[in-house]
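Long-time lurker. I teach an intro course on protein structure, and each term I like to show students one example going from raw sequence to a predicted 3D structure in token notation. This year I'd like something fresh instead of my usual example. Would anyone be willing to generate the tokens for the chain below so I can use it in lecture? Attribution to the forum is fine with me.
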Amino acid sequence: MCLKQERGKNGENLACQYLQRNQYTIIDRNFRCRRGEIDIIACDIRKKELVFFEVKTRSSLKYGRPSETIRKVKRNRIFTVAKYYQYQNKIRKIPIRFDVIEVLLTNSNYKINHIKQAF
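-- Reply from a regular --
Happy to contribute to a lecture. Here you go:
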């Protein structure tokens, strides 16, 4: 596994730990279909919402915030995959939202920024 993929996997693991500490139940990770992938699907226990997460991990802010890399094409792809996930799992009456988790990894430290209703 290359360094970039390893960093991304570490970021997703840290994001899952963060979510579990903050009253989310992880339902699925790396859900894939022909149209694309969603990093994490979880249930916000407090609000009773299904949340689709895009996790962006970086080692510096040299080129801007991680969330700034999620362009319109990527957002549309995530919407399409989420609709398919709902269809496949017969999810109809549960409110949904789309969040972004930014993970900044520096040396052995990390910082998480959770952006709710990012798009």
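Some talking points for your students: The helical segments are 3-21, 72-88. The CA atoms of residues 35 and 81 lie 6 Å apart.
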